[in-house]
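[recover] target loaded
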């Protein structure tokens, strides 16, 4: 039987190494590539064409959802899964919208992770029940996708100019989006708005 080819992407080396070692014990799974950042995960997926990509939600360069969205266009045969230590409701909704087929917390056992990899590879979807329940109870985000993206870039205290450069937009456009986002969440500035949006899982 042909082994399911897996890409593991996590910026925490110890966690990634442990997962790779545990999954290697499964006869039908083969870890063909590892990555420590979003851009590296994309490069590895292009090079190795894995069947399933297991992506950490929070990674340098690009988060797991952004990587999953890119893979859907660039490596369409690769099913994507998100593992996260931050199971905020908005993340789940963004992940599902990006075509992610599995969403589970980092607290799952290696055996459970292997089962979900097989299930996702077979064309099924798996969402951790607790994360799903939290998402349902949290309500919908008032932010547009662009507002959420720019607020996420504002989380580390970046200036308008820095956010504009990262997003490829004019500074005035960024200011307008962030002002609108702050008004929607009832915040006095972009930094407070980013904090509120993160607490609600909208970014």
């Amino acid at each position: 039987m042909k082994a399911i080819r897996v890409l593991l992407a996590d910026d925490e080396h110890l966690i990634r190494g442990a997962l790779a070692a545990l999954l290697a014990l499964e006869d039908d799974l083969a870890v063909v590539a590892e990555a420590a950042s979003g851009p590296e995960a994309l490069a590895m997926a292009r090079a190795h064409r894995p069947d399933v990509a297991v992506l950490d939600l929070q990674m340098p360069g690009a988060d797991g959802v952004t990587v999953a969205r890119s893979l859907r266009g660039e490596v369409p045969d690769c099913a994507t899964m998100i593992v996260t230590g931050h199971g905020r409701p908005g993340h789940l909704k963004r992940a599902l919208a990006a075509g992610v087929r599995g969403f589970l917390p980092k607290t799952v056992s290696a055996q459970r992770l292997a089962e979900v990899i097989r299930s996702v590879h077979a064309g099924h979807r798996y969402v951790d029940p607790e994360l799903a329940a939290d998402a349902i109870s949290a309500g919908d985000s008032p932010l547009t996708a662009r507002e959420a993206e720019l607020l996420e870039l504002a989380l580390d205290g970046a200036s308008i100019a820095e956010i504009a450069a990262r997003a490829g937009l004019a500074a005035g456009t960024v200011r307008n989006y962030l002002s609108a986002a702050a008004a929607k969440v009832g915040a006095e500035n972009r930094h407070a708005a980013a904090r509120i949006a993160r607490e609600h899982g909208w970014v």
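[recover] notes: The first strand starts at residue 4 and ends at 9.
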